[in-house]
Amino acid sequence: MRYNLTDLRLFVAVAEAHNLTRGAERVHLAPSSASHRLQQLEGALGTPLFVRRARGVALTRAGEALLRHARQVFAQLEQMHADLAPFAAGVRGHVVLWANTHATHSFLPDDLAAFLRANPQVGVTLEEHTSPEIVMAVARGEVEVGVVAERVEGAEVELIPYRADRLVLIVPAAHALAAKASTRFADVLDHPFVMLHAGSAIHTFTMNAAAALGRHLDVRIQVRSFEAVCRMVGAGVGLGLVPKSAVSTGGLREPPTVVELDEPWAQRDLQVCVRRRTALSGFAAALVDSLVRRPE
């Protein structure tokens, strides 16, 4: 069966307005024409989509299912337009890069800026995911290039060294832990934490590290950047777990104190992840070459 986008837009508009006339107005159709189109759609599907009532319409169960799918269709169309827009603007190449939180907020902004300046004909889409998600997506061929901090056993990918870094604990300057040079993660779990937002790769990693010890973190607040974590920790809100490269103290009235983490997993060496470097497309290969080139 072929679906007409005008009919689907009309259906969504009427479903959201709960009224045929108002829904028709949203898509600039006369009520009579809208009614005829919806009747044809219901006939083609072989099931009613609406229950007609005195003061409007309500969706049937079939209508609810169609509304869910129609919204997904229009969301995908919007994404398609967004993905194609760079080509209309004269950009002749595009690379999708998946990276974990660590890389996204530390090294990649400067490195991608340098790549884009050197390659004005290329656009990059940067998406944040956890390292295991990235490795599996690269292995399946869903994305060409990723930046990760850990390997996944059994995944057939190539890992190329990118940057070396460590996760560190940051604490308020007046906190008792500030006098320590290093500490174990298990020894700080009774304290409240400032975290990046749920869904960020480092949030997932930290929560899993606590869960592996049979503990649950006391998260006082979630923020959107490592700089905000540093500000909150410096102000005494709680402790933070951040990459050493992302620790921000300059310009802060109350900078946090860095305490090394005595954990093997604290060493977070970032690596570029590809399925096979020799098989990369031209622009993806150029991006990888740019990323793994040692900074001067």
Automatic annotation (TrEMBL):
Keywords: DNA-binding, Transcription, Transcription regulation. GO terms for molecular function: DNA binding; DNA-binding transcription factor activity. CDD domains: PBP2_LTTR_like_1. Coiled coil: none annotated. SUPFAM superfamilies: Periplasmic binding protein-like II, Winged helix' DNA-binding domain. Transmembrane segments: none annotated. One of its GO terms (cellular component) is cytosol. Residues 1-60 form the HTH lysR-type domain. Pfam families: HTH_1, LysR_substrate. The keyword rRNA-binding does not apply. Belongs to the LysR transcriptional regulatory family. PANTHER family: HTH-TYPE TRANSCRIPTIONAL REGULATOR YBHD, LYSR FAMILY TRANSCRIPTIONAL REGULATOR. This is LysR family transcriptional regulator.
